[in-house]
Amino acid sequence: MSDLEIGDLFAILEKSTDSAPERSDKGEKTVTEVLEKKSRKRTRAEEMGEKQRSISISEFFAKNKQLLGFDSPVRALMTTVKEAVDNSLDACEEAHILPTIMVEIEQLNEERLRVAIQDNGPGIVKAQVPRIFGQLLYGSKFHSLKQSRGQQGIGISAAGMYSQLTTGKTVKITSRIGPEHPAHHFELLLDLQKNKPNVVKDLIVDWEEPHGTRVELEIAGQYKSGRHSVDEYLGQTAVANPHAEIFYINPKMEKMHFPRVSQALPREPKSVKPHPHGIELGLFIKMIRESAAKKVGSFLQHEFSRVTPKIAETICNGAGVDVKKRPTRLSAEEIEMIHKEMGLVKIMAPTSDSIVPIGEILLRRGLARQVSGAEFYVSKSRPPKVYRGNPFIVETAIAYGGELRGNLEHGDMDDLSIAGVYLDPEKTISAALLDLPGFTRKKVTDLCDRCNIGTRTRVKNLEIEELESLRHSYNDFVKKEANSSPAQIIRLANRVPLLYQLKACAISKSVMDINWRRYNINQPKGGYPQGPLIIMVHLASVWVPFTSESKEAVAHFPEIIEEIKLSLQECGRELGNYLSKKVKLRAAQERKDIFVRYSTELARALANITGDDLEEIDGYIKTAMENFTTANYEMEKPALEEDAVSVEKWESDGDDGDDLPEQSNSGTENDEEGEE
């Protein structure tokens, strides 16, 4: 009776009489029926409670593998290669070894691929191999505040899980830690229920490599060339990691080589404490409750970077808290006041020891190596900033004009590819050309008409001359469309390319928020800049705030967006100056041409007036004109060619880029202020 709600009982009593306890014709309930209904509800709740159980992280991601980037066959291949290459680069850099990485992709059938990635890193000790490749959320970087590609300990083990789910095959690992040690070969499966590795094979094998690791996986995937492909990823990886050498064999048995641009390893990042600015209140409370410090002042100095005794005292005084009070005895109000005061006190910017930027010179050098033929290059690095207590650095680079051919050069005259996109030999030329970036059916028809090729002709039936004609016509089309085509945006986070989720990324938002028209670049309202332009943005941080576990887009933190915009504006100002000078030089050349056209008539008129010799006057005019135009041209031209000449010098003299420039604090003003 106690479980019966008072409102229910009162309603029943109002509708009931002493002489008629049974159900009325209107469907009114009796007290007994209500109690029985309450009893049934309670029984169901107990039954539901018995069904509740915990699940392992591997079970969760096995059912939600799209969260890790395995949502399509094409992207699954991309994610598998990306996670293995990232691990190889991290391992080599941590061991102070110049990375040499080999990537092989073999087509087994229409739906299956064999992926192998090998590096010359330090290798992995035998006891750790099963856990690294067969257990999710196992790694060494999660609790360390320093820059690294891997963060969560999910990537390579998730690739093994995907391989197991789609093909049922084991992950094969061969690793050796030194010439004096044997090479160990493992074959693993992941126990999804327990999130633990099952070792199928553990052998000692002969391996010619003195040290390193090789991983082989068989996955359900699909290879495609062009944008968002493994080819594109490795090309951008070479730009972001100029110290790495990459050998690549794709399923078409094409061999690609990305040589080192620098012989110097990046410096090793150091672990740091979080910065007081931007630290979240919940995390701050957790740090206080877990601290062993005996005084609030000591806690602030030891748990945060850039906090001196004087700053700690200033924070405590502003919050009205005794600097000698025990942290564990602080009330909730006092903790909140200290947290608020930390954000108000002026504290030195975070140290950059934990972050390893690419550097302005190497960033521009790597971009010029992979994106050849541009007429102008510029790059900028910003000083360190903080979001949520985590230091970060933004770097940007721009390549403009010339023969921008993209990040990779593909397509020999005897294969079936155009602009790096492989044409399916079984498709008609009309259907195959639709795979080219930016192509519509109308553009395909125009291209075929220009080359006198029928749209229903099979690709496999094309002659070499016809394919060559298609390539040239496509290149002409791209050049004509360059000024109205969106700029290519290369996004990097901790030296890792981000190829997917462009619109969801803070980097893309920052590019769109800038008014590029003030730098003489076309831009539709609310869109990306247009023209022969490549924009590269690199975010280096101890903890990159990705939007999901697939690590394909940066979250929209205001501090990050602001820094990206400021860095791009610095590059934009130099690009705008270059384009303005280019316009002035073109106008000067046009004036010179007009003067040359009428110089003979001028000389004849002067000869008639003065009575001097016509040829002598004409010679004086031409000499004066050449001296004037040469002097003006020499004042302007070096500024236009400075970056291009520097790039050619890097290519020829083998400079390793050790002498990096000091970071500049210029450009902190916002170019968007005062815009209409």
Using brief descriptors, characterize the structure shown:
676 residues, alpha+beta, Heat Shock Protein 90
Query: Rg, please?
Result: 33 Å
- How many domains? The number is 5
Distance between the termini: 72 Å
Share of helical residues: 40-55%
Strand content: 5-15%
Number of DSSP strand runs: 16
Shape: globular
| CATH-level-2 architecture of the largest domain | 2-Layer Sandwich
Q: Could you write a compact summary of the structure shown?
A:
The chain contains 18 helices and 16 strands. The protein has helices at 6-15, 31-51, 57-63, 73-94, 129-134, 155-167, 230-240, 281-290, 296-303, 309-319, 332-344, 360-370, 429-433, 441-451, 464-481, 506-513, 558-610, 614-653; strands spanning 100-107, 112-119, 171-176, 183-191, 196-205, 212-220, 245-249, 255-258, 376-381, 385-387, 390-400, 417-418, 421-422, 488-493, 496-498, 533-541.
